[in-house]
Amino acid sequence: MKLAGNSNGFTLIEIMIVVAIIGLLAIIALPNFEQARRSARKNACINNLRLISAAKDQVAFENSYAETSVLTSANVSAYMKQSKWPACPSAATGTDVYTVGAVSVNPIDSTYSASPDSHVLP
User: What is the pTM assigned to this prediction?
Assistant: First the structure.
């Protein structure tokens, strides 16, 4: 026999405790999520720099450029497999932030080259 006051639902206190636990987990996870996004953007940018470096080496080899010859994105873009010039995921949309430079120098992301969190080829 069931009593009238006995119910099978959750009490308000139980629901509040569950919401508080979920809130604490979210507070702990958000900084880690932001760090993972920043790391993924940096790695994507470094991969773009690696591709530009390979294309630059190919241009220099095929056209017999000297080590001190300075190349631009217009010289290198024809040797990229992508249809358009890559952009750093952390930069403003549509901005050309990569500095190609001389044949002997690795390309850099000029937007972040001055910051401590630089996007440069290792």
Answer: 0.70
